[in-house]
Amino acid sequence: MKKTSSKSIWLLTVFVFMVISLFAQTEGPKMLLDPILVERTVRPGDIISYTLNIENEDDFNPLTLDISVADIAESDSGSYEIVEAGTTPYSVSRWLKTNLNRIVIPPKSLREVEVTLNVPRGISGGLYGAVVLTPVTGQIDEEGALGVSEFVFQMASFLEVVIAGTAIRQEAYTAGFDVGLSKDYMFLKGEVGDDALVFSSSVLNEGNVHIVTSGTLQIKTLDNRTVARYPLGGGRGVILPGATVSLMTVMTRKLPPGDYIARSVVEYGQRRPLISEVSFAVKEEEVSVETNEYAELAKFLIEPSEIEISIKPGAFRSAVVQVTNRGEEKIDIESRILPLVYDIYGEILPEDERGEGLDWIELSPSSFSLDAGRSRSVRISVRPPSDSVGAHYADLVFRSSSGDASVEGGVSLMILSGSDFTRKPSLNLVSMQEIEGAINFDYILKNEGNIHIYATFEVALSRLFAQEILESGQILPARSQEVARMTIPLDDVPILPGAERLLSIMMPAELEAGDYELLLRLDFEGDEPVVFRTKFSIGEGENNE
What we know:
Largest sheet: 10 strands, mixed
Number of helices: 1
CATH class of the largest domain: Mainly Beta
Radius of gyration: 30 Å
Number of domains: 4
Helix content: under 10%
Strand content: over 45%
Shape: globular
């Protein structure tokens, strides 16, 4: 999901509230507001301000607006709704002020409203609200009419504030995962008909700051064959504290009759995503879906989500994680140990492609029950072999199942065995292609050391000129001329020992025939940077490495 920018958006968000009457009509105002969304990261005690630009597009009539501050709530579809100021636990309305309460804008004119936020001390997490513009209209009073209809149009500029340096808590759960048909969704029937499959993963934000979600749906057969993979989405992907938003995918492709498993993976800014599964069946005689009834999905919290253990080879160490049941029903939890493995794109591999876990790691207890609101300590015991030197990585998975649905959580475990750690990257060019206005390079970065790598690339493209002797006898030495330069930060997924990562680069440049060199400087965590060089030639429309 792309995040909405606050810098260049001209959108009209209209909330209509109607007082029921009869026999009257009205037309909404012609106006534009910028920005429609303001996002800020601040610190306690800060004072921030910004300007709202309001344009009256009417050619003949002035526009009078009342300006007020309101709270916002979020619907199941991910859209914001205006609610009364001071009614939400994350309300910003007490500290948000405007320099005007009413404004008159002449025809075809632009006016500005100054907004100021005094960030309070002693508050953590996020604050949310809106500046609301309400057109002022005259009272309609038609003699002899049975009644009148008064339409009030409102436009809002939304504000999302994160208070940095405070106790920010990102805590989210899968509240439900459903499979149904489009005939049960009125807003979908007209677009895709009655028989499309609809997958809906509801995410509940129980933290104190908004989260940004990005979901993936995977459909598999019972024998673990992947059938399809789709994105899951809802609105901008932003979920306010306390809100539940459904991330949906509509599948118009018809599945063969049979039994399937739908797996939802929702990233929300934490190291581990929200993972849930539900089984469903497609009937043969008609397009229909059967899902068995199951209880509310389990909500459990695992702390900490990451553990690092330093140990001598052959020695014994342990650590403890706390599992807490945040739901209202008793749950059963089972655990297992898997290798932590990422593919060439930095995506974690499916469980069946990761192999066996490390047999010298144990969890105790490996399975247990938890009453509502209760916690349980789980001990992680490690004893690496005496010849085991380097970093080892494991994925400790905790699963709770209820009927045909299940929810997963877990811990990322890093074990540093010994004290001799080496980061050794290597880079190989796998393809190069000249396109109009640019040249593409694909490299494979491999970690040949024994501990993970986080890296950033600085890339420079230069044209090479050979030594030249002029007719006058003057010698021009060989030289290079830089054509383009860029910095490429890798994502926050580590490159583990022995693993490979694809690095794709597009350098915008109009390249003439000649010799070139691409320089890549790799900076990684305190070690000396490494420089890789790739020379190539361009001539007669062909690339020659």
